[in-house]
Design brief:
Oligomer: single chain
Number of helices: 0
Number of strands: 20
Strand content: over 45%
Radius of gyration: 19 Å
Distance between the termini: 15 Å
Mean pLDDT: 88
Order of helices and strands: EEEEEEEEEEEEEEEEEEEE
Shape: globular
Helix content: under 10%
Largest sheet: 8 strands, antiparallel, barrel
Structural class: mainly beta
Length: 254
């Protein structure tokens, strides 16, 4: 999920107001007792992003508004753009709470929380594979992660697509990455990634692991041609993942 800059229009005597930086927000929680993960960007009073039910791993688009006392969001299908529900509630230091409402009026309680240190003690080895078929392609995603008290000791992540004569491959290993400080979860960046480079030609690569309860969400940002290393083929694409660390089952986020 990229950090976006919202620029204000030219006003008055032609002065440009300072850009409004988007704030990245992520929550684990429940809707009607079902575990969910929500990823949002807040720019001023606007909210945009997506969420998913962790047991299904199908993303749903979100758009809404927020102020000091309340938030409202509508959800839409990524497939056909149809509105499929809405949220209303209140933000708080301990988390967000409220209700989800379906188009036919059914309501479910919403409880969302943030725990920046949820993976600070992550230890063990987690291995899983997941595959889906779509549009004539077979997509295979594999993860092998080893960690000790929040430090990544080993990592192999790959995403391959096959179909007809066309094959696409993406792969990345811990030797390509370095673990860096993060305000939440575990963050790894390509060793050759210059975070200060904001030019149009800059190519960045980050793997962000976020945790809540039994679940770890692995989000890949960039990682196509970072530095001199191609982590993806020209037409390849990464797939984010949901891992249940208790059962060692995973799903690619659709």
């Amino acid at each position: 999920m990229r950090i976006l800059l919202a620029r204000m229009a030219m006003i008055g005597v032609g002065l440009l107001s300072p850009p409004v930086l988007a704030q990245s927000l992520s929550f684990f929680g429940e809707i009607g007792g079902a575990p969910v993960f929500i990823s949002l960007e807040r720019t001023g009073d606007r909210l945009s992003g997506w969420y998913l039910y962790l047991q299904q791993a199908r993303s749903i688009r979100l758009e809404g508004v927020i102020d000091a006392d309340s938030f409202e969001m509508d959800e839409f299908s990524f497939v056909d753009g149809k509105k499929t529900g809405s949220f209303k509630g209140a933000p708080g230091e301990a988390g967000w709470s409220g209700n989800w409402r379906s188009p036919d009026g059914r309501q479910l309680k919403v409880s969302l929380g943030q725990d920046p240190d949820a993976l600070s003690e992550l230890s063990g080895r987690f291995r899983c594979k997941t595959s889906i078929r779509e549009s004539g392609y077979a997509f295979l995603t594999s993860l092998d992660l080893r960690a000790a008290r929040g430090k990544v000791m080993g990592l192999s992540l790959s995403h391959d697509a096959t179909g007809g004569d066309d094959e696409q491959s993406c792969s990345i290993a811990l030797s390509d990455l370095k673990q860096v400080r993060s305000d939440s979860g575990i963050l790894l960046r390509a060793r050759e990634d210059d975070e200060t480079d904001t030019s149009e030609s800059a190519q960045h690569c980050a793997l962000h692991l976020l945790g809540g309860g039994d679940y770890v969400v692995a989000l890949v940002d960039g990682c196509k041609g970072a530095g001199d290393t191609m982590f993806c083929s020209a037409r390849g694409s990464w797939s984010d993942m949901v891992l249940n660390r208790r059962t060692q089952a995973c799903k690619a986020i659709e």
